[in-house]
């Protein structure tokens, strides 16, 4: 139990969930605590506890309709407090110290709870998802993606600006193969494998007929692994369709990164062709 009252009576209901001291962020610790006696069982209060003081600040309240504490078992699709990759944990702490306002923790999937389309990217970008806490938001990689999602009827707005922008995805969810920011945007094979259990659980919860759009070859490989397939079972190719177990489909695209767009490896027309292919699958 926290020592002193925080914002009136709220803290009386909150139990510490075992947050640990970060090796780099010695000035503060963060925890997500369930507010089981408050509001709904799926509401979390994020607290920042400043070292040397028992006074905390309620920093952010996150309503999470489907990433509940109860799901943090073998079938969990996300854990905000995961620190299983030591190198990434260290890096996030460094980034948080340099950019205190950044999210700098694992980035949760964003979108519809029951999607027909699951978009899988590689990992958060340092000044994008890692900063804003929403996949493909805040940097170049999201521009083409969110425009396409809007044009093909999956969203109510063509631009994703941040958590409070009112953007809603319909029948679509975006996730990443690796939930934490890696140095130089390059997760190691071990980190990809360690994080794959979340993607495995997320795909396992998808209904039959779901299409998975893999942005880039690493996302493609992560999807195969999450589905229990081997890399030789399906090779990556732009706008290539693969059948997955349980009547699901995988469609590949070059990643919508700044490099790929500016070098014209991926044009808007090419990207829209991929979405037309996906629409064709749904029309079957
Ligand atoms: S990358 Fe995935 S497994 Fe590794 S620490 Fe982040 S959330 Fe956990």
Summarize the helices and strands and which ones pair or pack.
Elements: E1 28-34, E2 43-50, E3 56-63, H1 86-98, E4 110-111, E5 117-121, H2 129-132, H3 141-151, E6 172-176, H4 189-204, E7 211-215, H5 217-226, E8 241-244, E9 248-253, H6 258-262, H7 268-283
Parallel strand pairs: 5-6, 5-7, 7-9
Antiparallel strand pairs: 1-2, 2-3, 4-6, 8-9
Question: What would you note in describing this structure?
Answer:
The chain has 284 residues and is an alpha/beta fold. It has 2 domains: 10-63; 86-283, Uracil-DNA Glycosylase, subunit E, CATH 3.40.470.10. The chain contains 7 helices and 9 strands. The protein has helices at 86-98, 129-132, 141-151, 189-204, 217-226, 258-262, 268-283; strands spanning 28-34, 43-50, 56-63, 110-111, 117-121, 172-176, 211-215, 241-244, 248-253. The chain is globular, with a radius of gyration of 19 Å. The termini are far apart. The model is unreliable at 1-73 (pLDDT under 50).
Offer a quick outline of the entry:
This protein is an alpha/beta fold. The protein has 7 helices and 9 strands, in the order βββαββααβαβαββαα. The chain folds into 2 domains: about 10-65; about 85-284, Uracil-DNA glycosylase-like domain (Uracil-DNA Glycosylase, subunit E, 3-Layer(aba) Sandwich).
């Amino acid at each position: 139990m926290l020592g002193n009252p925080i914002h009136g009576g709220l803290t009386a209901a909150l139990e510490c969930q075992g947050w640990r001291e970060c090796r780099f962020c010695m000035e503060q610790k963060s925890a997500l605590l369930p507010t089981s006696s408050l509001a709904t069982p799926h509401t979390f209060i994020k607290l920042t506890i400043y070292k040397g003081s028992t006074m905390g600040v309620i920093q952010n309240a996150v309503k999470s309709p489907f990433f509940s504490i109860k799901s943090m078992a073998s079938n969990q699709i996300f854990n905000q407090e995961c620190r299983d990759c030591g190198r990434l944990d260290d890096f996030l702490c460094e980034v948080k110290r340099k950019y205190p306002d950044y999210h700098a923790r694992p980035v949760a999937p964003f979108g519809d709870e029951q999607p027909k389309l699951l978009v899988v990217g590689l990992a958060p970008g340092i000044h994008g998802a890692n900063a804003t806490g929403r996949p493909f938001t805040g940097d170049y990689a999201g521009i083409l993606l969110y425009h396409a999602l809007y044009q093909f009827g999956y969203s109510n707005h063509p631009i994703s600006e941040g958590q409070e922008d009112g953007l809603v995805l319909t029948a679509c969810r975006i996730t990443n193969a690796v939930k934490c920011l890696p140095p130089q945007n390059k997760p190691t094979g071990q980190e990809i494998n360690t994080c794959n259990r979340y993607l495995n659980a997320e795909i396992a919860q998808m209904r039959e007929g779901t299409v998975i759009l893999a942005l880039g070859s690493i996302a493609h490989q992560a999807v195969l692994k999450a589905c229990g397939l081997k890399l030789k079972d399906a090779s990556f190719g732009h706008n290539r369709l693969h059948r997955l177990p349980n009547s699901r489909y995988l469609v590949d695209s070059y990643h919508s990164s700044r490099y790929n767009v500016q070098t014209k490896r991926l044009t808007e027309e090419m990207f829209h062709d991929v979405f037309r292919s996906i629409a064709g699958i749904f029309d079957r």
